[in-house]
Design a protein that fits this description.
single chain, about 70 residues, alpha+beta, 2 helices
């Protein structure tokens, strides 16, 4: 069984507290599992467009998919 995840990374990095807060907001906002892992937030599932839209609505200036 293959499990897909969507990763959210910051080009300039982010501290652990910011990643934990973002994971919590993503869990509540998208109804999907999310947790900070190293320098990124992993969101359960292949939901790139949902995550990108969520980030854009919350003021992300640039969202890169790929």
């Amino acid at each position: 069984m293959t499990r897909a995840a969507t990763l959210v990374r910051f080009p300039d990095g982010a501290d652990e507290a910011a990643l934990d807060a973002l994971a919590r907001e993503l869990r509540h906002g998208l109804g999907a599992g999310a947790q900070a892992e190293g320098d990124a937030v992993a969101v359960q599932g292949d939901i790139v467009e949902r995550v990108a839209n969520w980030l854009t609505k919350r003021g992300a200036k640039r969202v890169v998919r790929g």
